[in-house]
Every structure is written in C-alpha cells, then in structure tokens.
Amino acid sequence: MNRGYYWLVIALSIPAFIWLVPTLWMVSLSFQPNDVLARTTSSTAFGLVPLPFTADNYAALFTFGQTPWWFLNSLIVSLGMTLGVLAVSTTAGYALARLDFPFKRTILVICLVGLMVPEQAVFIPLYTMFADLGWHNSYHALILPRMAVPIGVFLMLQFFRAIPQDIEEAARLDGVGWLRIFWYIMLPLARPAMMTLAILTFLYAWNDYLWPLVSAQQREYFTITLGLASIQSNFAQSEGLGRVMASGVIASLPVVILFLIFQRYVVQAMTAGGSKG
C-alpha cells in the first residue's frame, strides 16, 4: 500500500469521527448519574468519558417506565412492515417485469407517479379512512399504510428485468409454471435486492415518527421514536438527562446491529445493479 492510501484513510477518518461525536456523547451521558448531570455546569461532566460511571440509567430503564413496551412496539411494527413490503414489492415487481396482463403499462405508470407524491400529502385521507374503520391505536394501523411502497416495487422490477429470460424459458420447457418459477428460481436470485429492500424498510419503519404521531394517541401504542419525543418534549417530568440518553442508546442498537450483520447484502445489490446497468 502506498502512502496516498494512508492519507486517504486519515482524511476520511476525520469527518467520520466528527459524525460519531454526538453518538459517543449520547453514550457517555447515558452512563453518568442524573444528579451529577443536573447540578453541574462543568464541561468535563459532559465530555466523552463518563465520569463518574454508573449503569443505573439502564437498570431503571427496564425496571420502570414504558420504554421497553415502546421498544417492543417498534419491533413489531418494523418487522410487520418489512414482511409486508417484501411480499407486495416482490410479487408486484415480478408481475410487472415478466408477466403480460391487461393495463400493465397503466399500473406501471401509476407506480412511477407514486414516487413523486410526498407521503405527507396522503396523511389526511389515510387518517380519515382508518378513523372510519376504527383502526387507530392499533398495530395494523401503524403497519398497513406503509406496505405498498412504490420505490420497493420499482427496485424489484428493475432487478427482475435484469435477470436473463433464458432461465425462465428453460424452466418452462420443463413444464414448470410461473408460480413455481417465481418461488424457486426468481426469489433466490433476487435475495440481494430483497435484503437491501428489507434493511431500508426496517430502518425507515424504526425511525418513522410522523405517521405514529398521527395514528397512535394512546401511550401503549407509541413506538420508540414517538415515546422518546414525548419524554423530551416534557423534559421537566422525565427521569433525567441520563435516562433520556440511555433510551436513545437502546433505540439505536437494533439499527446498528442490523446494518453490521447485513451490510454485505447491500454491497452485493449495489455492485450487481451497477454491473448489470
């Protein structure tokens, strides 16, 4: 490795560290006693090294309060939305890419137009529809509106189009129907794109704030983002800065773990898409 490589690593490490400072600061504050944070004005108490050190904020987090319940709500909503988006996007993407049926081009145009419509523009119709059905303050009210995602359909459509048709034609010559072709041939080949879509959907669902704010008025149906926002907006009644920071750390863990485990699938999908383009 030449010297230029090391200079490049150093140049990229500096902005990366600056980007990580708020996260490291949040972790540090979560391990400091609330009484120390409340009465001190010294800058050392708000440094990156937690002094004095304590784990009481995390112990109290899972002993009292509703944070564990909000965490479970976010997990249920994120997993449900991810599975729903995968089911809708893969079937719709394969149908638009490979099958012939009436009004196919019209449906494709509608999907593309859906990419240009901001999600906030449909909040009022969605809220009215779910209110008429009496579905607010429920898990399906938090999951169902986000299952039909145009970008997911478009992503799977482009991936299925890039797969050579010779594979399907060979299977049809052996008498295999389109449903078995889709399940046993196309889905395994589309695994990198599906993993990418699953990761992006899970991250979006986990960090979503606007729709849970609109649909969930009861605290037992709050997601972790909505619950933390309610604590921060009423900070005077919260259990202290350290407890709030500990909640933020716990809320961030699934996202970090998910990316560390499945990041290779994202790289595979990006490189495959670039080579096929």
Mean pLDDT over all positions: 84
The level-1 CATH class of the largest domain: Mainly Alpha
Provide a count of the helices.
14
- Cα distance, first to last residue? 31 Å
Overall strand count: 0
Helix content: over 70%
Radius of gyration: 23 Å
The tally of domains stands at 2
CATH architecture of the largest domain: Orthogonal Bundle
CATH names the topology of the largest domain as MetI-like fold
Low-pLDDT sequence parts? 273-277
**What would you give as the CATH superfamily of the largest domain?**
MetI-like
Structural class: mainly alpha
Gross morphology is globular
What summary fits the major beta sheet?
Answer: none
The share of residues in extended strands comes to: under 5%
What is the H/E string? HHHHHHHHHHHHHH
Subunit structure: The complex is composed of two ATP-binding proteins (UgpC), two transmembrane proteins (UgpA and UgpE) and a solute-binding protein (UgpB).
Family: Belongs to the binding-protein-dependent transport system permease family.
Main location: membrane
Keywords: Cell inner membrane, Cell membrane, Membrane, Transmembrane, Transmembrane helix, Transport
Explain the overall architecture.
Residues 71-262 form the ABC transmembrane type-1 domain. Belongs to the binding-protein-dependent transport system permease family. Part of the ABC transporter complex UgpBAEC involved in sn-glycerol-3-phosphate (G3P) import. Probably responsible for the translocation of the substrate across the membrane. The protein is built from 14 helices and no strands. It has helices at 3-30, 34-39, 56-61, 67-98, 104-114, 123-133, 139-143, 150-162, 165-173, 178-189, 191-207, 210-215, 224-233, 241-276. The protein starts with a helix and ends with a helix. Mean pLDDT is 84; it is low at 273-277. The protein has two domains: 3-54, no CATH class; 66-232 and 243-276, Orthogonal Bundle (MetI-like fold), CATH 1.10.3720. The radius of gyration is 23 Å and the shape is globular. The longest helix has 36 residues, at 241-276.
